[in-house]
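Deliverable D4.2, example record:
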Amino acid sequence: MTFRLAALGACMVLAACGSGQDVDPAAQYGPTPSLPEPSRALLPRMHVPKVIGWASGETPTVPQGFRIDAMATGLSNPRNVYPLPNGDVLVIESKKDAKEPVERPKRPVMAWIEAKAHGGNGGGPSNRILLLRDANGDGKPDSQTVLIDRLNSPFGVVLVGDALYVADTDAVLRFPFTPGQTSVAGPGMKVIDLPAGPINHHWTKSLTASADGTKLYVGVGSNSNAMERGIEAETDRAAIWEVDIATGAFRVFARGLRNPNGLTFYPGSDTLWAVVNERDELGPNLVPDYMTSVKRGAFYGWPYSYWGQHVDSRVRPQRPELVQSAITPDYGLSSHVAPLGLAFYAGSSFPAQFRGGAFVGEHGSWNRPELNGYKVAFIRFENGHPVGQPMDFVTGFVKDGQARGRPVGVAVDRAGALLIADDVGNTVWRVTAATP
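Output generated by the structure prediction step:
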């Protein structure tokens, strides 16, 4: 405790010092974000808001012409939502139970900060999948059942044919399932192991499937911030895997993506998209997180470079030949917003300007003095590409510097409403158009 307090005191002193990175966050959105010079310190500048939760009757804020309601409350770390074709909604409750070993003097402080920053505490059972059923279509579930229990930090879910695939932190599992069921009996069948182990830095594993149902795509985050644990700890990590459903064989689809989440295909295309959490400890306004289409066989820079070919001088050994091949992402989301959810709007109940655009769940910063993120942003698309500045679509998760909630996964349900998993507020929110 003495060490923790001393280190936190040092953080506060560092946070009071200028970083030389005075950048308007708005200048870090889009295809050419402003990139200041790196700024390093003994510990990153931190600001973790106190979690207060939602008072009775409180909701996030949505634009005029929309309304937001709590679809489910009193949950335990809801991290993702997945609508089924029959109208049922799956809610993935998940938390990381295992603690990482102490390898560096600052690790206990960082672990404490990350625990405060990366999830709530619902107090009940977690690491399971709930099923919400709204029989009369009024947006309020008539029943809530446990579909699958005793999972290992699950996150990604996708339905393919008569099987439900679940990405635990250490494996992809297959469960026989037909929409309409309210429970699944027996353990799942393992499709493939995923990198995990005692050190499992980025533990959420995003999941989607190809349109023809033959391939799974799994997001596997890095095992460190910037390869400080060595190259062996990063084997097949910071990557998106392509898994053959029939055989379980895999290959790396794309590399150099520090923590890819929200994997989804653009509607009507075979173009895979993801949101990516970039590296920390280079200053409050570096490096911008991003949303990008993902090209087969491409390298996106981590850990050797960021935003294309900007070299990270901390990494040893350097790999200039890899840096030369690094691809620049499509769209910057500003620094340290921690995007974890991505959903394209293919519904019809929202106004026309939302069709084909992207909703991004931004879990929010912890390693910069001014909070950033803590919202659901909307980015308009034209001809399959993001354009313009983002719109703050769902806000109000932070009030007076305190966190009432933090958005994670987002999805669009059968009726065209936007669903949001709020892991700190322990709520699933549903946004509808006031006049569809």
